Amino acid sequence: QVQLVESGGGLVQAGGSLRLSCAASGRTFSSYLMGWFCQAPGKEREFVAAIRWSGGSTYYADSVKGRFTISRDNAKNTVYLQMNNLEPKDTAVYYCAVSSWGGSLRAYGPRQDVYEYWGQGTQVTVSS
Hints:
mainly beta; 1 helix; four-stranded antiparallel β-sheet; seven-stranded mixed β-sheet; single chain; 128 residues
């Protein structure tokens, strides 16, 4: 069993920054894939970014490239999503998820069906 707890959401003005955290517990994660997804009101949940726990390879959705950075702290079993230059369209509930899938990060990172555990989500609201 894995537990994921997100934090760091809040209200920010357009152009501002937030850093989301996802603390993982319950298993070791040396070969795991961690992902961030978001769900805006009335929309389906969609991929934001993913990182391979071992090695730190990353992959991003086109909409956040150059603005968001995913990283991890192995010692703290925590994954971060640094969000800069936020836009109103980034308003959503952000979820982290973990997968034991070992395939291509580019091919499988965005696929929600490969993630076995999800956090409860944290709200990000960007005002114009």
